[in-house]
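Quick question: what would this complex look like in 3D?
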Amino acid sequence: MSSNATATVVRTGAGSRFVIYTLLALFCLYYLLPLYVMVVNSLKPLSEIQAGGMMALPDVWTLAPWKSAWSTAQIGVEATGLRPFFWNSIVMVVPAVAISTVLGALNGYVLTKWRFRGDTIIFGLLLFGCFIPFQMVLIPMARMLGLVGLAGTVPGLVFVHLVYGIGFSTLYFRNYYQQFPTELVRAAMIDGAGFFTIFRRIMLPSSGPIAVVCVIWQFTNIWNDFLFGASFSDFDSQPMTVALNNLVQSSTGVKEYNVHFAGAIMAALPTLLVYIVAGRYFVRGLMAGSVKG
Amino acid sequence: MGFLDIKNATKSYGAVKVLHETDISIEEGEFLVLVGPSGCGKSTLLNMIAGLEEITTGDIAIKGQSMAGVRPADRNIAMVFQSYALYPNMNVGQNIVFGLEMHGVPKPERDTAMNKVADLLQIKHLLDRKPGQLSGGQRQRVAMGRALVRDPDVFLFDEPLSNLDAKLRVDMRTEIKKLHQKLKTTIVYVTHDQIEALTLSTRIAVMFGGHVQQLGTPKEVYDNPANMFVAGFMGSPSMNLFPAKIAVENGKAVAKAKLADGQDATLPFPDARGFERHDGREIILGLRPEAITDRDGADRNSQSVHVIDAHVDITEPAGSDTFVSTQLGGKEVTGRFRADVDVHPGQTFPFAINMEKAVAFDPKTEERVS
Ligand SMILES: Nc1ncnc2c1ncn2[C@@H]1O[C@H](COP(=O)(O)OP(=O)(O)OP(=O)(O)O)[C@@H](O)[C@H]1O
Ligand SMILES: [Mg+2]
């Protein structure tokens, strides 16, 4: 990919190149504008926003809105700030992502290297699970969680995301392992390695790119989820997204826009970080299955 | 009962039978080569011995013990794969001892074994490299090392040389042969290269269409092919096969084959081959190129060299020999002449035919006639 960066397919003239870059710059600006607005307004006192200077840089720079959003703002009935909900989200996302990735890898391993009668049907059903709209499962899922005593808890949310995540993570790993040479698995079998040893010692060490793709995908989806969070959590198990909504809704009297902006950035920050750290592997991993070499 | 017994084994995928009833018994220390064209079931049979493929019916036994239900790891076999199948995340040393580690051999012993094998194969300087940093030939050696270190009862090789270039292939072939002579371990070796089969094996199983066509020593398979498939497959250039007719003249059997000018060439069979009882029968006569040569190149020990004058169609100098083609029975027939024979296309030239080496086949069944 990077090796042929210098070899452009079509040679463009300077004029048309200027037009292209100008257009791209404009698009970039258009996309970055909201981010600019959020950052700028989260760093100024409310009075400046009310005075109508949305686009202007702050006259007085302040971190007060961030502090308020984090630890003192009114969420629903209590003035706890977003902090407890941020931890709720972390405690929900980390196990959900980790477990769904590991299970997806195991599923992909079995579906490609330990094939059995009916394996394609099972894979088809898992895939089908990916594309069932969230809304359809809300009521059955609520009933299920109630029955097993997980309703309104963080483990309950972990479970829901896990079930939804496995379809995608299995799809990723199955397609990746399809390209993985079966002779390696056979060689390891003859060498005396068992099912899990082969998985751990042979498959996993070569699974870096697809694991990154899977983790990013699951992390952003689960972190950003609002519907399941709103449906299956109680006040003290709410994830960040739901709490942010409550923050914006529950402000009595004046709307503290600067605090809302700060809260919104906080809610978006983890996914942003994941992309910045691992984004390049994301593209690489997605390409790895489709083209070789 | 042999060291490795394949007893009436078959393999089917659903309704498709890819390996028909196969019986092979191998003695300890033998080098059996399974050879045949692509898709004939060689790898399938090898994988069945390894335990990587289920046996549909029949049985395979090693040292008299049935391998039914025995895991590949517990069969005390080692295998070298066509793609080498080196673990990409481990270095050469780790690759070699992985099997020992899995079988619970303690580290000091593993290291001793690794060093011994690395010495034997001259790969000591590569031990810390990853497979991705090796050339094809080096990978091949490492794959061999991984098999050797286990000191197994049987080595299984699936086309181990087919990914190497021609020169390296010949070198490695010699090395494998040397290794076998040194270690005397039983080997089952798959290839589609008949030269590899002839040079390496103590016995060859020629396979085609899921059937073992012939099982025998290289000499048996080469000199006495059981049918036309084996005759055509083994040997390069391949055996000349052309239509002829058996006749009895003066109480002796001869083969009559049409020359280019429409005349019959008369080729007397050696005595005591019993062809007299086939008087008048149409056959396909098989003659290896080296059984058709110039007058002075002919085998002096043969009692049955017969010279015919035939029209030279093509000459192909090949360095050590010159291949000379003519027409017999309406087919192009190639002889192997000495390189310095002065022969040119268009000439009529004496061809010395060694009928001791002639074989006959039935044109319909393609089986041997004797
Ligand atoms: N999983 C399978 N399902 C159905 N048919 C199969 C399967 N595996 C192999 N076959 C068929 O079995 C036959 C024998 O295959 P095998 O791999 O043993 O051939 P081979 O002699 O090793 O050929 P090559 O020289 O190309 O490696 C082939 O016709 C192949 O199509
Ligand atoms: Mg094969």
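Answer marked as accepted. Residues 14-62 of chain A form one domain.
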